[in-house]
Amino acid sequence: MKPLLIEKFLEGKTALITGSSRGLGREYANVFSQAGADIIINYQNNKEEAKNTRELVEANGCRALIYKADVSDGNQVKAMVEDALVNFSKIDILINNAGHSQPKFFLDITEVEWDRMINVHLKGAYNCCRYVVPQMIERRQGKIINMSSLIGKSGGPWAGTHYGTVKAGIIGMTKSLANQLGPYNINVNAVAPAFVITEMSNWRTPEQLRAHREMTAFKRTGNTLEAAYATLYLASPYSDYITGFTMDIGGGAYMD
Questions:
Q1: In a designed cystine with 88, which of 14, 175, 195, 243 is the match (CB 3.0 to 4.6 A)?
Q2: Cα 149 to the center of its chain, rounded Å
Q3: Is 163 among the catalytic positions?
């Protein structure tokens, strides 16, 4: 799609985006910085890709700092957040995006793989919220956006059971946090993308991709820019009275 001209409604804001060295995370960093936000870039393995994300953010006229941290490790997250607060003084927006997919039949999933899926997605979101939320409560403002998936609602047949489980858990976590943090003027929402082409979707066969396209109302897959624009709305002032909501970004493939 043709990039849109974005109003600078996030100017003066800082966003921490986990898993932002590539894929959707990088697109979030790109679009959010176009809206004026400084970006805290988190990665685990590929520093060069994280540097590419930083170049995008800086080209948009915003500041960016890179932090290596495994979000499943609370100590690493704590160190990242504390240093980021020294450099940026505040974190206005948290996007819990870090994650991975692993399409496997249930009986082929090892205990190690099951635990890793839970630790990265669910514990990772917990760790980031645990260390970012206190300063949001102190300032009585903040936006948290958690990354779920349509698989968490539909239990899609090709995704791993452990993946569907954590994505459903993210929705429950989002609702609970929204209730508890609402009195502090903190919005907590989730997005549930599906059929958006990223590196994580490369496991699909051509036959599966065709089947997925047919499941959508538009008969096509989506792209990262479309997903980022939708997510940007939940970080904007236009969504100040929305919380506990999970936004489907899947071209109408699942309607509830």
A1: 14
A2: 10
A3: yes
CA distance 137 to 114: 33
Which tokens hold the place of 217?
Answer: 């109302």
Tokens of 8: 């600078």
Q: Considering the entire predicted model, what is its pTM?
A: 0.94
* Active-site residue, from 28, 67, 126, 163: 163
**How big is the chain by its Cα radius of gyration, in Å?**
17
Question: Counting Cβ atoms within 10 Å, is residue 107 exposed (0-12), middle (13-18) or buried (19+)?
Answer: exposed
Question: Where along the chain do its domains lie?
Answer: 14-249
pLDDT tens string 5-61: 799 999 999 999 999 999 999 999 999 999 999 999 999 999 999 999 999 999 999
CA 227 – CA 204 distance, rounded (Å): 19
Closest CA to 17 of 93, 80, 116, 83: 93
pLDDT tens-digit map of 85-121: 999 999 999 999 999 989 899 999 999 999 999 999 9
In terms of Cβ atoms closer than 10 Å to its own Cβ (0-12, 13-18, 19+), residue 27 is buried
Using CA atoms, how far residue 237 sits from 13, 34, 209, 240, 249, in Å, is: 12, 15, 36, 5, 20
* Contact indicator for 23, 199 with CB cutoff of 8 Å: yes
CATH superfamily of 14-249: NAD(P)-binding Rossmann-like Domain (3.40.50.720)
